[in-house]
Amino acid sequence: MIVRKSPGEVAVMARAGRVVADLHEVLREAVRPGVSTMQLDEIAEREVRSRGAVPSFKGYRGFPATLCTSVNHEIVHGIPSRDVVLREGDLIKIDAGAIVDGYHGDSAVTWIVGNAYGDNPGVVDDEVAALVERTRAGLWAGVCAATAGARLSDISAAVEARALPHRYGVVKEYVGHGIGRSLHEDPHVPNYGRPGRGPRLLSGLVLAIEPMFNLGTADTETLADDWTVVTADGALSAHWEHTVAVTDDGPWVLTARADEPAWPLRDPSRVPRALDAAQAR
């Protein structure tokens, strides 16, 4: 069942989204060579609780940590560990959630270790940098399609359109979702498909939109820990996510960080877009 939120509920979710956005800013500073993913998780739990919120993921269906930290060919749901120490050039996917007054915010980022601010391009080759950038552009294409009156698959088609020209594998087993009092609610939000299908988007619908693009196959495998999802061919993967409210005034990105627009249709010049190959060099 799809649950629409009242303006008051969306306002609470915006507070949860702000906690997650602020957390990602802190973690962005912490991501560097020599840091373990468990150290990032410890920072995350401390930061979430210091803001009066509760981690969404810890204990959820038995998940043991505050963050999902997935490195290189790991796509999603990686478990933080002291044995996983970041190296320059690694891709680290950090998925985080927080609960405020019973409502969730959820957002994921992909950083290149040693280049989290894009000021050290020598740590990674153009192909990998482009994957990260284009996956983020796919997220924002989906966000901008989340307008009142559109169809759910308009989001899906907008995301996939950013992957198809580059022959990226678009992960199909793990998709976006509704969000609210539960971390995962109806509807599922695939990152692929034809436009003009599915339920109509109405004001008060809140979605977590989260594309995952792979440099190789779209096929996935799950490791023996029953959580960590990896690419079947060992290729690198990128993952971005935002919590977005559909409103009559356009999509409201509840987890937008300082360098991103909360209202992208009002401020299109700030919407992240992928550079072409010549600009990326």
How is the biggest beta sheet arranged?
5 strands, antiparallel
Q: Strand fraction band?
A: 15-25%
Number of domains: 1
The strand count comes to: 15
Structural key phrases:
single chain; 281 residues; alpha+beta; Creatine Amidinohydrolase; five-stranded antiparallel sheet; four-stranded antiparallel sheet; 5 helices; 15 strands; 25% helix; globular; disordered C terminus
Model description:
The structure is a single chain. The chain has 281 residues and is of the alpha+beta class. It has one domain (7-280): Creatinase/methionine aminopeptidase superfamily (Creatine Amidinohydrolase, Alpha-Beta Complex), CATH 3.90.230. The chain is 25% helix and 22% strand. The chain has helices at residues 7-30, 37-50, 126-144, 152-161, 277-280; strands at residues 54-55, 67-71, 74-76, 91-100, 103-112, 169-170, 176-178, 185-189, 206-209, 212-214, 220-222, 229-231, 237-239, 242-245, 252-253. The strands form four sheets. Strands 8-7-9-14-15 form a five-stranded antiparallel sheet. α1 packs antiparallel against α2 (37-50) and α3 (126-144) packs antiparallel against α4. It is globular, with a radius of gyration of 17 Å. The model is unreliable at 276-281 (pLDDT under 50).
